[in-house]
Amino acid sequence: MRTKKNPKKKSERCRVVVLNPPSRHAKNVVRDLVYGCWCKGKRIAAAKFPPTTLLQIATVLENEPENEMILLDSQADDLSFEIVRKKVSEVKPQIIIFPTSTMSFKEDAQTMRELKDDAVKDKRDLVILSYGSHVTFLPESSLLEDSIDYIVMKEPEYILRDFVRAYRKGNDVSSIGGLGFRTSKGIKINPPYPFIKDLDDMPFINREHIKMYAYFNPLVRRLPWTTMVTSRGCPGRCNFCSSPSFYGNVLRFRSAESVVNEMVVLYKMGYREIFFRDETFTAHRKRLVDICDLIIKKKLDMAWICNARVGNLDKKTMKIMKDAGCHTIKFGVESGVQEILNNIHKGIDVNMTKKTFKWTHEVGLDTHAHTMVGCIGETSETVRRTIEFLKEIGPTTLTAGAFTPYPGTEIFEMVKKKDTSIGDGTDSDLSTLHTQGYHSKELCDLSDEQVGKAVRKIYSSFYLRPSYVFKRLISIRSFTDIRRLLFAGLEVISFAAGRDDE
Q: Which CATH number fits domain 14-189: 3.90.550.10, 3.40.50.2300, 3.40.50.720, 3.30.70.1290?
């Protein structure tokens, strides 16, 4: 096992590549930290989002002029492994910052090894730092991978800032909080780095690192669009989500003024729609209303989408949101069976879900329902009841996924006690993420294959209804609508019909 050495000589500049790597097994792999760090894997409906965390890291680092930042977004630019390796060799970075996730860890490790090998051939030094939920919750096993020099645990921005600054100056990096690395005496895991207390202190993301039209969201109505994150943490305590462990059970919010000021900057850049990717954008009711009031006061003509929690909104607030430009709210419905919701500690009830969706229909807001199959206690009957429930509440769109145990969650530890073969979770197959479950038998009455079939059944039962197709067709208002419905619709129909081998 290779051990780490501190930099010995000072460098006037430090060239850093912030890399969103490609995938050998899937398209549009998500490795970022939002959505509770558990939403890793592939996107159905061809969605492709800007790498928000990577952009924030790049922005923080480039605020120090001695750092030369290069962001490579392989997902957006469809870069192959060969092209990425060539670009990295041409740039000759001293440091690569590499996000990873549980389901992508093995192939990510292979990519990091290849980048290391290229550096050796070129006779140049290269340090690779990896961040994300997987290395945060399983630091020791992650550091058994020799291609990783340092792991960055929990919030990465300021840890990486301090590391690059010390590395550039030739100073000791071994005492920086939140780092894990190898020494001659074994693996060392440093104490945590303090959470960022005031999110308003973070610089606005520099989106000049990405192409304005390189991304796709089937829910977006106006182009160009981008993403924002205005808070960290979630009020929920779902046992399948690592957010409570990752963010320390503390919710932090940017001020309404900070949020709207960034929206103004984006508007001047040409953006016309924002997807707020906060886990629960609506968690702080007063702040939410203040944001809406400021948007209206400034006459800011921007559309937006956000994530919310059932029971977190009332009809009056929904009206204010719509007046301020919101057109779609995404909810974690998960299941239409109360017993299932109780088993996963969702903290909502089906009657409140019905009422919430009724309000959105009355106000005139679109909705998106996130659902899962294979939760604790799932049976063929509960899947049937969830399908009927979804038809009853009538979301505009939905996604369904296989309930998957990830490190850092109560569910992962529950499965591990029953079946130690789950190990660190990295034997999960990225290529079958949406077509079968993972250790489903330790959680419910359905096999992995049955879970996959149930996911497809939810899609086909909802999207392939003639009434639904007709409703979507008559909702078309523009060429943008035609493009997004055609592009996303073909992907979803292909998947629902079983012709997609994602």
A: 3.40.50.2300
